Amino acid sequence: MLPEPLSRLIEELQRLPGIGPKGAQRLAFFMLKSPREQADRLADAIRELKARVVHCSTCNSITDSDPCVYCRSGERDLRVICVVEEPQNVTTIERTREFKGVYHVLMGALSPLQGIGPDDLKIRGLLTRIHEQQVNEVILATNPNVDGEATAIYLARLLKPLGVRVTRIATGIPVGSDLDYADDVTMHKALEGRREV
Amino acid sequence: MLPEPLSRLIEELQRLPGIGPKGAQRLAFFMLKSPREQADRLADAIRELKARVVHCSTCNSITDSDPCVYCRSGERDLRVICVVEEPQNVTTIERTREFKGVYHVLMGALSPLQGIGPDDLKIRGLLTRIHEQQVNEVILATNPNVDGEATAIYLARLLKPLGVRVTRIATGIPVGSDLDYADDVTMHKALEGRREV
Fold this sequence. Notes:
Two copies of one chain form a homodimer.
Chain A lengths: L3 H10 L7 H13 L2 H17 L1 E2 L6 E2 L5 H4 L4 E8 L2 H8 L6 E5 L18 H9 L4 E4 L5 H14 L5 E4 L15 H9 L5
Parallel strand pairs in A: 3-4, 3-5, 5-6
Antiparallel strand pairs in A: 1-2
């Protein structure tokens, strides 16, 4: 029989993704052993996150001051918009240090099975940006899975008539990987997307 | 570039056991998406844990009221003490619903490599309990690894001269397992500990 505060923490931890009953118990006992300051810092960080992080009113990416660091930067090319599904995808693309344009976060992907249609995504804001600014190119960087692919196809059909260049990120064998580990569809896409060397 | 509150939470989450940079980011983004009430409940639970959970002054197990539920229960046999390394071990033993005695948590195990000696463990309290109460049996339920085994041997030598019965939990093949998966030492222990049927 665990003390009530401990079992309550274990219960709350189990709501997090990838944390089961054993993992939650392990984390809770670790916190019990760790210094009080460390536990307080974690509790504060969780509260601060919800209190201070908002979505950028232009691109929907997360930020602690609106507009976000990308939208307000004078050094980013506002004419190239990279469209992603979730705020964390922005981080993944930023890590490459390659992209100098701005972002647009859809806050999800089309998914008929889950009942998510175009009206549930932040598409209207994207159209407004294309209309109001001199956008040259929209890069569709939704995930290369069923929902992300459907979203990319939908957006391509919607945006091309507006006269904007619409591109899709490449699918293929990951760098550093081995051909033998590639699944059939990825191998097919890699062949299909081959380029002159 | 992540908003400061988000990167701070990711940093704090990474201090937890078994959570790396990717896992911490995943958890932080999940909390960002989840309702504020849920995040607040988690933050509260962490604070409450540190504020309200203490160690039992008799057996060192964790409790929200001292003495703990086992030490103050009129239904437990105070003459049988089960010695474990950590507070969470008590939960594991309680789950069997077999043990009706009381516990003594050492708060660790002897580990010369990590510089943990007898003075770093809660052994004195155990001796006091044996002296003051009519203890019939001490069950050594430290882990069956190098440190736990060394601790058990040390305690056995210390306690036997006091005239108390000292026992050690059995090692062997886990129930529901397969002989082929047992390591050599476990197989050896299982043979050594064989019993008449």
